[in-house]
Amino acid sequence: MDETEIASAVDAEISSAQEAFRSGRKGDTSKAIEYSRGEMSDLPSEDGRSSVVDHTTQDVMGWLLPGIMRVYFSSDQIVVYDPKGPEDEEGAEQATDYINHIVLKESEAYRVFWDWFHDALLHRNGVVKHFWDATPVTAVEKHFALTDDQFVELTSSDDVEVLEHTEQEELEPAGVDPFTGEEAMAPVILHDVRVRKMLAPGSLRLEAVAPEDFLINDEAKEINERTRFVGERILTTRSALIEQGYSRVDVDDLVSGKSDLDGVALARSGNHWAGSSMKDHATEDIEIYECYPLIDYDGDGIAERLKVIWAHGGHGKKALLDWEEWEDELPYSDLTPERVPHRWEGRSVFDDTVDLQQIRTVLQRNLLDGIYQNAFPDEYIDISRVKNPDAVFDRVIGRKIMVEGDPSGIAYSPPMQNSAAQMLQALEYTDQIIERRTGVSRSAMGLDPETLQNQSATAATIQQSAQYSKIELIARNFAELGMKRVFKCLLKLVVKHQDKARTVRLRNKWVEMDPSRWNADMDVTINVGLGSGSRDRDLGFLNLVLQQQQAAFGMAGGMGSPYGQKLAKAMLHTAQKIIEATGLKSPDMYFPEVTDEDMQAIAEQQKQNPEAMKMQAEMQATMQLEQAKSQVTMQIEAARLQAQMQMKQLDIQAKMQGDQAQMQLQAEMEQIKAQIASSSEAEKLQSRALVEREQAQADMMVRQRETEASIALEQQKFAFARELKLLEFDLKGKQQANGHAVNGNTQNGNGAPAKEDSGHTALMAEITELMRLAAAPKRVIRDENNLIIGVEPDAAPMGD
């Protein structure tokens, strides 16, 4: 294929992609921009009525986006590279440090990622461009009064270009003249120089691409090497194109101007486009298209990936400014908050809130119109009886209106129906729908101070976790569906294009990085763990992990064992994560990294100092014992409170049953007494027998309820005693384990067991007393009518 045929093929792909955007995504993109800004041109207000606009889309975006940004930027490591084999271990660590340094420190990552995530949340798909910019990174320096040696050393490097150079001769002291004894002066040539120093031959670049500028064929399902066509519309100037090396003749023939200003660009500018200012020919706006089509340009039957720079030429021609076969990865990656299977376009936050924002806008306008109508109702006025009609239409407070006759019959206001309650209920219902769709609620946004009232801590935690799970899902989708590809491409670009070692500052040290030795196909892991919840939740989880690590470290023998050394490194990593979770940067400033050599040195030092090892073992054992005591004490206290609560419930239940039985018996007795008073002697005898039978049945029912209460108390007593016994065995087991960890330090000098400390003795005494009270028999309390009113322990003092 010749260049004309390539230009025609690219022109067809561009037209097809733009037509697909205009027919589908263009309207949604413009609408999403307006809705997020609080403008709803498709829902105009009526003259004289409320024009308020709901901001649901903006509110949801304002809650989701900061949380997602914190997921990735709360740490100094967005990405971790995993080695493919043992030979990649060192390279993977260096690549992790270097790529994170380039992205976070040199690529304006926060701004780029903010725009990228914002586009994805609002417009379904966010697109970022990642490429190697071959423009050298330079810096201009000035040096004064350099000696010949200093000047040669500075300018001998190939990376230094001399821009200005002047020489001057000065006299400097040259020692003492042996003939005169005076200080001799000698002429010296000094150099003043201005140089351009090349800091790097090129650099990685990250740029967020606006949705209206990105081009992709309509049948694409994702961006990968099989995608038939992707591209980007770029707005530049004639001057910039000539600086990039394009022919001035070709550039001057290009058509200037911007397209689509009546659509997305106009919406993005806030509908305030007033045209461009006067520009000369060199600074005129030129639209070019950077495209990556699959075209079989060599006729071998296999389509090759090309990079084509295309523009609108004069007289309707299609200008092919440059083209080449492309061998790298596609320089575009996208992400979406909610992927739609078998389709490139996903779903956005705007898709979930557009209908609700319309409904809420109508409801709020009607609500305000009703309030205004009630405050200033319509009035029917007999204007013929008003002497100064202008005063009727004057809104001045305290005006004087002169009327003829009785003023009460001059004006009449028809009764108004207040529907504010129904409007507020409808708005509350839409709040619930928003929460179900997006996970955003007033409690999560901190807007409703009454949300957590009358709500248990567990329920609040469950609600908060459910809300954070939405952010977690979006962050995971971003990481797996877009960011992984970005960082894989960045590694390949650095390995391919940076052919010289470079020195960068990492963790307060200058480190030399040589990517040419790294494996460009290493696996990628995006850090999404911490940050997706609240800081308190993250810190709670990390502190719990650290406690478990400390316990395992003590049981492993500390630094004296290889496993203990591994746990020490793990505890250091956890401590650094705790620093990151608090929002502080550079955790290595608080907990410096420890190398294997440092670990070996600490272990050797402890081996040479047995007293230090003994003290460390005792401290670890004491710490574990105190931790065990604290845990057992908390468990015992919880069990005691639970048992007391259950006994209270049984007491109340028994009293209620007794009161019910007493009331029922009294009612039956009163009924029988009434029957006796109005009956004959024979009937009285029969009634007395009935009374005695009823009394016997009541006594039997009371005894049955006493038996049931006693059985329930025995069951609670058995369960409580078993739980306390298990806690006692658990504590004894931990004591024995700690005793072995100290290597016999729990024995005194005579080999006898050491005396238990006072805290442990008091704890065991409390356990024994609780077990005695739980095992003691219970006594049922009765009132003067022999009815159950409570239950109490019938525990005699120990030893009785």
Give a short summary of the structure.
With 800 residues, the chain is α+β, with helices and mostly antiparallel strands.
How would you describe what is shown here?
The protein is extended. The N and C termini lie far apart (110 Å). The protein is built from 18 helices and 19 strands. 22% of the residues are buried. β18 (778-782) and β19 (788-793) form a beta hairpin. The protein is of the alpha+beta class. 50% of the residues lie in helices and 17% in strands.
Distance between the termini: 110 Å
- What's the overall geometry? extended
Q: Quick one: how many beta strands?
A: 19
Share of helical residues: 40-55%
What is the alpha-carbon Rg in Å? 42 Å
Averaging pLDDT over every residue, what do you get? 79
Main beta sheet: strand number and arrangement? 5 strands, antiparallel
Uncertain regions spanning at least 5 consecutive residues: 445-460, 740-757, 796-800
Strand content: 15-25%
How many helices in DSSP terms? 18
- Coarse structural class: alpha+beta
Instruction: Report strand order across the widest sheet.
Output: 7-8-9-10-11
Task: Name the quaternary structure.
Answer: single chain
Question: Secondary structure elements and their pairing?
Answer:
Layout lengths: L2 H34 L19 H18 L5 E4 L6 H18 L2 H15 L2 E8 L3 E10 L1 H8 L4 E17 L6 E18 L2 E7 L4 E3 L12 E9 H6 L4 H5 L11 H5 L16 E11 L8 E9 L5 E8 L6 E4 L13 H27 L4 E2 L29 E2 L7 H19 L3 H4 L11 H41 L4 E5 L2 E5 L9 E4 L8 H21 L6 H20 L14 H13 L1 H68 L3 H61 L16 H18 L2 E5 L5 E6 L7
Antiparallel strand pairs: 1-17, 2-6, 2-12, 3-5, 4-5, 7-8, 8-9, 9-10, 10-11, 13-14, 15-16, 18-19
